[in-house]
Amino acid sequence: MLSKKTKYGIKALTYLARRENNEPVQIAEIAKSEHISIKFLESILLLLRNSGFLGAKKGKGGGYYLIKEPKDISMAKVYRILEGPIALLPCASHNFYEKCDDCDDEATCAARRLMTEVRDNTLKILESNSLADIAF
Amino acid sequence: MLSKKTKYGIKALTYLARRENNEPVQIAEIAKSEHISIKFLESILLLLRNSGFLGAKKGKGGGYYLIKEPKDISMAKVYRILEGPIALLPCASHNFYEKCDDCDDEATCAARRLMTEVRDNTLKILESNSLADIAF
DNA sequence: AGTTAATTCTACTAAATTAGTATAGTTTTA
DNA sequence: TAAAACTATACTAATTTAGTAGAATTAACT
Prior knowledge:
The structure is a homodimer.
Chain A: H1 4-17, H2 27-34, H3 38-50, E1 54-57, E2 63-66, H4 75-82, H5 110-128, H6 131-135
Antiparallel strand pairs in A: 1-2
Helix pairs in contact in A: 1-3, 2-3, 4-5
The first copy, chain A, binds a DNA duplex through α3.
């Protein structure tokens, strides 16, 4: 299951993408509209900013705004920042690979085999969807 | 990411499936071979027994054994018992559906849209794989 | 120019949940 | 009687979610 962080992050990005213009939107506005705890959302937006998805403007009239076109924002990248590995097992992950210490032989591990197949398909879907694809 | 419960459960089922005969195998044997805490594995096997995947025989010479043919054990069902919902959001789940309390309108929720697509594909894979498919 | 209000940013804390492990026994059966 | 599954519970650690307090920045107003 996705963490709320990821769900909220996706909803916030969607909210920004659906805006006509790309002027800064305040955290409070997004939080209210999407029913998200304002402080929790604050940390999520900050993460998305530090990861290069959002820009921020401080002070009066400030807020967050998309830094790229929605069609150029890959949901796979968003997922990796917010949720972490796409694979369901560390040993089936490209970007976050780790060997299982309980596993003698990866080649014959049935769990790995199955989860690799799941991973490949999930990745394909997340990579083929941009923010624009899911927002509109 | 999968919980260890699920990973260990799949590995234990695989271990049993790879056995030539279907005689009871003791927890300790599986635990040792797969490097799993014996007590943790105990609770997992118990769950799999109570869910109709395994039979158990008590006392000397006892142990756990598969109650069905590996080819008749759906990994989707195994996954649901061990890990829970296949969907990444409760609102995108068939078997464990729950409305999000933060969501005004499911129809326009981008997160739901995306996660439903992921779910459909993951489900297809898990349903098309039996224990026999991944063990051999 | 200086003050004020609105806003992001930073750091710390805390509550709640979940995962994983450990302990101590009871029951069943060869 | 010994070997095994079964039951119950309690503990620890990690993670997630959220809250608190204040610093830094900026725009607008006087």
